[in-house]
Amino acid sequence: MIGLAAAGIGFAAAQSPAFFRIGTGGTAGTYYPIGGLIANAISGAGDKGVQGLVATAVASNGSVANINAIQGGSMESGFSQSDVAYWAHSGTGLYEGKGKVEDLRLIATLYPETIHLVARKDAGIKSVADLKGKRVSIDEPGSGTIVDARIVLAAYGLSESDIKAEHMKPGPAGERLRDGGLDAYFFVGGYPTGAISELATSAGISLVPITGPEADKMLSEYKFFSKDTVPADTYQGVGETPTISVAAQWVTSAKQPDDLVYNITKVMWNDATRAALDAGHAKGKMITLQNAVTSLGIPLHPGAERFYKEAGVLK
Questions:
Q1: Stretch (H or E) spanning 115
Q2: CB–CB of 173/271 below 8 Å?
Q3: 223 CB contacts (<8 Å, ≥6 apart)?
Q4: Which structural domains are found in the chain, ordered by start?
Q5: Which end of the chain offers a freer environment for a tag, N or C, measured as fewer CB atoms within 10 Å?
Q6: What is the enclosing helix (H) or strand (E) of 63?
Q7: Measuring CA to CA, which residue among 138, 148, 143, 139 is closest to residue 61?
Q8: Out of the domains of life, which is the source (predicted)?
Q9: For position 46, what pLDDT does the model report?
């Protein structure tokens, strides 16, 4: 597989195609299908994509794994939560004492990623504080979800030792919830997510609100969080639920050639890609050119920045 650094600026003229991998997340989440849509759009098939480019969406363990892969050179780009990207670039939070990932650059902010706290309907969990003593999956180590879950728990005066913590991916967590072996689980991702929709239909769920003075304090303390609301009937039988969100972002390395990232960004926002995103996934419509330059916790890649200035969304 030819590395893009080796391919250099002349990637379009290279004999072999340049590969541009997009690290996504688990196949049950939102990153994976969105990554597939974007990879198809920017691949040089026909006259719509980037000539000489083969882009692929790769399933992964999510934000942290993707940033590590970009840093290590085994992935050209990937999706990350805005909080994790910020921590990586600044060497804080999850990356405290691990050094800064100073080469991390933004291609685009994609859509809000909602913090879902999914509970069994009969578990009697009405607020985050009710998780005390309950069996709760906070996702696997290395996921962005686990960091946010700990922040949310702490805001309501709980730590991991106050709950019976499990460390499962959302798919298996949902199955365990259905079987009665789990009371609740955290999931960070765009709504509606297929696995939760299926769970709501087959077993019934409640979504626990993340609101009140505890949530307000989190919003003032952590700038990568925003207020969010899951509309009524997004999931069968679940009313409107106030919560918080982070942003899903597409990130890469400063080492990727400016012309390549410029061309990828340009194709990302053309009419054909727009149509594919609108038709391909419920979250696709929320991926807009105007939102692409919001939640800028890390610097834009110069190639992307050039395009956004030309497009008039960045001064």
A1: strand 104-120
A2: no
A3: 297
A4: 4-112+248-310 (3.40.190.10), 113-246 (3.40.190.10)
A5: C
A6: helix 63-72
A7: 143
A8: Bacteria
A9: 56
